[in-house]
Amino acid sequence: MKISLRHTMRFSLGSPAHAAEHLLLTPLSTPQQKVERWSIEMPGIAEAAAFRDAFGNRAHLVTQTRPEGELVVTISGAVETFDKAGVLGRLEYDPMPALFRRATAETKADPALIEGLSPVGGRIALLHELMDRVHQAIGAPAQMQVQGAEGQAQDSELEPQDFAHAFIGSARALRIPARYVTGYVIDEETASFHAWVEAWDEGLGWIGFDAALNLCPAETHVRLAAGLDATSTMPIRAVPVWGEMPAETVELLAE
Amino acid sequence: MPGPSPFDEMTNADGSVREPYLILEQWLKEQPPQALGLMAADAEGIFRRLGITFAVYGSNEGTEKLIPFDIIPRIISAIEWRRLSKGIEQRVRALNAFLHDIYHRQEILKAGRVPEKLILNNSAFCPEMMGLEPARGIYSHIIGVDIVRVGPDDFYVLEDNLRTPSGVSYMLEDREAMLQLAPDLFQRYKVAPVETYPENLRRTMESVAPAGAGSSPTLAVLTPGIYNSAYFEHSFLADQMGAELCEGQDLFVENGKVYARTTMGPRRIDVIYRRIDDDFLDPLTFRPDSMLGVPGLFDAYRAGNVTLVNAPGTGIADDKAVYTYVPEIIEFYLGEKALLKNVPTYNCTDAEQRAYVLEHIAELVVKEVHGSGGYGMLVGPASTAEMHDIFRAKILARPDNYIVQPTLALSTCPTFVDAGIAPRHVDLRPYVLVGDQIRITPGGLTRVALTEGSLVVNSSQGGGTKDTWVLEE
Asked: Whose CB among A129, B67, B177, B439 lies 3.0–4.6 Å from B433's, allowing a Cys bridge?
């Protein structure tokens, strides 16, 4: 599927002497997606340091000296996605999978979710069972963070990250490497920022599991970055820290 | 104290004097009765003038104190030092190789030689360091290895400090004071110099500058500020090296590069000796509430635009639980047997070892895995039955939080105390610099427990220091 989208974020900055942002907003081409074009527009991006982070992502460090008022970040790009039944495989700059067994404050295991899970049917079956349990236990994603065309983020109690963290905590408790993945999900005419999980299998490599939607990501998912948890995979982390959530829109563009 | 009498570095059991101390013994005999007392008083004046103080946490008597200085030097022969420094160099090589492996392919974990969980779930392990290629492949450039001696040829490593070891300024000032107090003694002995340390530190830092830094890289010392207990040392070293002394707010990152604010305008910084803990280094990557760090510093480091000395995440190599694996680590990376011994260490998560520890706690030393500075530790033979019970309960509650070792009979050195010259227990922290070459300053900081019989040498617990002499051949 060819997906063309634009993601706009507006942040209120105040007037610091220096502002710095760490961006994880650049997708890699993988077996699941081919990045045809991609751009980030924001003050300072032309002079930004571009580098690979610890988790194999393309990262940027952007700074502004004496910025004023509002910071607008616009990401736009076109990606062709392929249905690989959720299998990402191995990427060139992936760190050791064992790293993703490290428990973090955000990825605590819930014993109820893993009780009785059996590896007898194989790891893949177990991970599907876990996805199903997380999906049921945490609730249907009716109120997920879907943005309307007007750009207001709707109030919601459940965020995709809650599903992802529950899945990751449980998988790691079972000694299965699992990582947090950010990206966009397309639902017919709308697109939204999203989060899901990749779990490790020695045979297949990394496999995606989207417990919020209870499916393995296929053509509807555009993958941005992976990390230990939501904090290590934040699309934008900034200093000074923003007081408020950004106003943001994600639009699907006609080809 | 139970057990046989400890090894004294000056006097043998039969009363004869060991060879390196013969001249000193003669010199001491020549001193008129009040001379040593007067020297000790002079020493205090010298240190007050030099301004060396340190802060004691949890103390009520003001925050700044002088570290007591003992006027009798500790003397190590050239042969003894050659053996020791070989062992130290071996350790430092292996631990840097271990850090590179842990933050790349993790072969030692795959080989099962060190448990994966111990490393990857450790709070001292820094996931953000994965895949980063530091200049020359070196992670820990400045290391202080804590060593104790229990016999003529019997040395043990107590701790490898690979994060931000402090105390080197005491080593330098102790030497300066000693040169002023007893210049005649330096005429009789050929003592290897320590004064080259700041110059060697500068060379080491320059040798690990990033590729684009040019032939004379700009160096900075990053300090948490004047309230830090080691601020004196930070400013002293910056001054000696001709480096910028900066607090976090004096540095900023622009376009991926690090600059210092100076009176002459922004100055590009290439290598930073940071004396701020990992967590506080950069609020953009680590603790977002850190006011001490520099936003964007870690990303600038990852982008290859600045070198951090030491690298973040080096603590995984001196973690007390990892310590027990150091002999294994040396074999794995160097294919050699460890030249310096580890202190045998009981693992309290093992039921059998824990049972032994609980039964014999009165003979043992208990340390917190993440503790330092002598805080939160128990020296069994020097503690009350009540303290033993408290630590038994602590170990039972969190067995993974403690390591336990036998009480070592630390060697003693003659020390000037109120009653005259008497043996007191000592340890040794040699300082190692790793860059284009490995430079070990001959000697190091000798810490001495001034209380009779005490084995706790930490300055925060009433320990003092001595000038440490390595004799040249």
From this structure: B439
